[in-house]
Amino acid sequence: MEQGSASLVVAGNLSQDLLSPSTWRMSNHVKPPRSTPYLSRNVSTKRSGCDAVGNWFLEGNVVGIHDELYVSLRTRIDVQLTAGMTSVCKLEDDGQKMKYRFLHFYPMPGGQNKFKILYGPVSQLYWTCTPVVPDPCQDPKPLTRRGFAGNPGNMRRLLIFSDSINGLNWLNAGCVAMSRNPLESFHYSSPIIDRNDFLVLARSSTGAKNSYQEYHWTTDHDEGKGKLPYDNHNSNLITLHRVKSFRSLAVDLRQNFSYTAAP
Fold it and tell me: Is 142 helix (H, G, I), strand (E, B) or coil?
């Protein structure tokens, strides 16, 4: 796709047959702003496909904020070298037609990678788990020699747990998983709230020394050897992480209008 990706919203009526096409409605398409030099160092060496035209929308989350609907989208800028940025779109739905439009870019830890936003009614906070890039400005050559996939903005070895009062402004609450090996990763997380715990399922790569490792497989009927990619992008495991008593990790961000100035 030489012109990059676009985003749209699809809605289904849960009271009807979800296998029927008439149950579903689709919004208009929204493309990201293409030329945003103020968001890019323009140092990426990749110059083909979607990334060549600037910005790229990927997986999105429809989020209700103060009785309005927004979409927070994973965003690639300069092939992820501008990390920690998401795109915010506004969604208006009158029950018949959905109007969808781009609002602005917005800073978000891990916004360059796939994320899922949850709302917790008990805490009245939003929660997510994202791979945070520690240093997108580092020299990429040592990473490339090891078989690292992409540039330093594609680092996925730090999976950070965050909370927000509005689904836009995020504070780090803790680290769910971490490796000092740049080829290991914990990403594409899928979280759920399980009573007092926060469970995170992550696409993970562990045990990587360089980009391809010898792999011995065996079944009841056969066995053999092959090469599987274990690097920061391509995984060899699905890992499950549990954050116990996760609400206690969040700073209380709620306002209290009963406070008065001391005399």
Answer: helix
